[in-house]
Amino acid sequence: MSDFIKKVDLFNVVFPKLSTFEKNDWEENFMVEFTHDSTSIKGNTLTLIETKMILDHIVSAETSLRELDEVRDHASTWTFVKENAHKGVALTEHQGYP
Q1: Residue 64 neighbours by CB under 8 Å, 6+ apart
Q2: CA nearest to 51, candidates 34, 64, 32
Q3: In the structure, what pLDDT confidence band is assigned to residue 96 with cuts at 50, 70 and 90?
Q4: Could you tell me which residue, 63 or 96, shows the higher pLDDT?
Q5: Distance (Å, rounded) from C-alpha 36 to C-alpha 71?
Q6: Where are the alpha helices (DSSP H) in the chain?
């Protein structure tokens, strides 16, 4: 069994047992790390802490507009994807983004 499958199986066992606070905390941490990792692939130089601050609506004066927009755009796109997945809406390349 691959490591990925093991992790998915573990997640499916553990996540439903978490409290609402723990689930929200997990989702927030995932959003910060996923956003940081995804934007850094494109050359974004913000630290994990700076990314979290932006997601919490705290922006340093030294943050470039490009990096700020990348973090905000990634977060809003991920939220869009999650909302559509919860609704059972299939995502396509032709689907409009608000």
Answers
A1: none
A2: 32
A3: low
A4: 63
A5: 8
A6: 3-14, 20-41, 48-55, 65-87
Which band of pLDDT confidence, cut at 50, 70 and 90, is reported for residue 58?
very high
CA atoms of 97 and 58, how far apart (whole Å) = 25
Whether 26 contacts 18, CB under 8 Å: yes
The pair of structure tokens assigned to 51 is 């990314």
CA distance 49 to 68: 13
Q: Record the tokens describing residue 44, joined without a space.
A: 């974004």
Cβ neighbourhood burial of 40 (10 Å; 0-12, 13-18, 19+): middle
Three-state DSSP class for residue 17: helix
Terminal alpha carbon distance of the chain: 40
